Amino acid sequence: MITKKRGISSVIATVLLVLLTIATAGILAGILVPLVRDNINKSTECMDYTEYFSFDEDFGYNCYNMTNASYSVSVSAKTVEKEIEELVKGFELRFIQKGESDIVSVRDGEDVGNVSMINLGETKIDVPGAGETKTFVVKHDAASKIEIYVTLASGRICEEKSDSINVLGAYC
Q: What's the CA gap between 148 and 155, in Å, rounded?
């Protein structure tokens, strides 16, 4: 008895391989494109905020008050477009002493227990807007350097410091 073996034709095999390849490419694209897009957005989110905040030394603040164990710091925001300014929620101050750092988060409209504003009876923080300078009093132990980092409305804290100031020996 003779049996006939039948296989799939080469045309059908080629079509199946092409469809499998297209399906695999579609699945990978569906996963990789959003992932890459999100990472690109995150990596460029802080580009407009390089050097956004700076310590303004024109007012004679930026010093340590030994009596109150607090720093006075004048923070200026550079002049930018309204769309860029609206995305700023606050800043972080990093007090650096002997290689260690302590972070104080300052957010617009919030009541920060160890941070107040000079010449205002308000307890809520008002972060400087574009082109403005505001002075803050921060209760904190002695440090040699203070760095400032931008905090965006998305909650992201930009990794590149906006400015820094040496305060070692700067007493009020």
A: 16
